[in-house]
Amino acid sequence: MRRWLPSVVIVLMLLGLWQLAASSDVIANALRIEPFLVPAPSDIARSLWTDRSLLVDNGWVTLQEVLAGFAVSIVAGVGFALVLHLSPTLRRAFYPLLVASQTVPIVVVAPILVVWLGFGIGPKLAIIALICFFPITVNTLDGLRSVDPDLVKMMRTLDAGRWRTLSGVEAPTALPYFFSGAKIAVAVAVIGAVFGEWAGSSSGLGHLIQQASAQLETARTFAAVVVLSVLAIALFGLLAALERRVAWWGHTETGVR
Amino acid sequence: MRTTSEAPVAEPQPIKRTLDGGARDAASDPAAIRIRGLEHSFGDLEVIASMDLCLRPGEVRGIVGPSGCGKSTLLELVSGLRGPSAGEIEVNGSSHPRRRLASCAYMPQRDLLLPWLSAIDNAAIALRNRGASRRKARRAAHPLFERFGLAGFEGTRPAELSGGMRQRIAFLRTLLAGKPVLLLDEPFASLDAITRAEMQEWLAEALAGESRSVILVSHDVEEALYLSDRVTVLSPRPARAVGEVAAPAPRSRPRLEAVTDPAFTAARERALGALTEATR
User: Fold this and answer.
1) What's the average model confidence in pLDDT over B13-19?
2) Is 0.85 exceeded by the ipTM?
3) Is A137 exposed, middle or buried (0-12, 13-18, 19+ CB in 10 A)?
4) Which domains occur in chain A, in start order?
């Protein structure tokens, strides 16, 4: 618990300042806007309670989108990393394309995907997978390639075939790298879900944010953002816990010379 | 999936190294390793100029030379991990790289233990590589832990072991591969002086109970002489053999006693002399 203490103190202090500034209308006056547009943390907390069924229902939709998109990106990302690792030719061919895929602005692609895939979960899934795919692929590939060449040689003289070297040495070395990528991916997956919902949807936290802010329900907007953050942090925490259980050896020095 | 029993292994003939100290004429025996006219270059960089080498079955051969003279490359060539630019290498009568790979177990400088495996699983990895179940592999490794003073450490993770212990596990791993030829690449280079001396004694003991042929690469003349039957001295890169010195002392003797023996110091002087001359 002591580890968390500093960050908890800072957050509480900031919330306190915010509460003071909002309730005394300092922010609203400075921005020259109506005080009701600047919700205090207490207003947001109230919204979290009164709008709870709205938030839970929409949060559930977003969570499903995030989990599905993330699952797709794990399968695709790890698979792609393996292919690129096993074939230097394909690696040289596809690596630039992989990087290029990240330079495509998701905000621009999202509406097109909605046109193509409709208002359902399809476009959200595609957007989330597109965002998550990159960190997972790149990190996993780096992990696979970080294996010490001497270790591979040693395995060859100890009668290991390609598959054994992959499953016995390369995959375990890459596992912590994969988790690094997955943790980055899951944090941005939530943002991808919001973009997807903004481009066209009838539910989800992104949708809720869009509607609430259009109706000047700023407290509800913030409440939805809070739920969104909690969702991302929880997923990140789950992955970190899983990593400690199944990849406890971390980024080993068998890889780095 | 190849086991050593399938490889065309000439019956290893244990030799009485304590009596003749390796001074016996090599040509009359079937060779475990025979190298003729070996040359190797990496691009324009000539690493091995010309080398001939002959190891009898069961012989422990030390190879010493200045750092970076191509000793490690020599082991990779012998093991079949790398193809030579020119020349012939025969291991157990076969020059085919895959056959050589099947006959040689290579122990690299660093222990390269896998951090996610326990000591015994690391030691038994060759058996797992050949498709043995984890239980079977462990059962095969277990007696060696007893024999080499590692009993009780089977389940320990490499990160919890000292450098010397890790190196012992790495050596067990090499032994458990069951190959007739062991290639040891500066096995103690990363250890501190005291651990190193301890490990040399330990390895001398371990090798005395083995009938396998061993090439031991080192940059330390004393270590090579103490552990081997015979030491080949290499010149700086491009490497060529510039001398061969027979080790006089029986190897299982306590190290301090062995290395201060007059015959041993004389052999060391001869080897050092050859090394100095070649470096000049």
Assistant:
1) 40
2) no
3) buried
4) 1-38 (no CATH), 40-246 (1.10.3720.10)
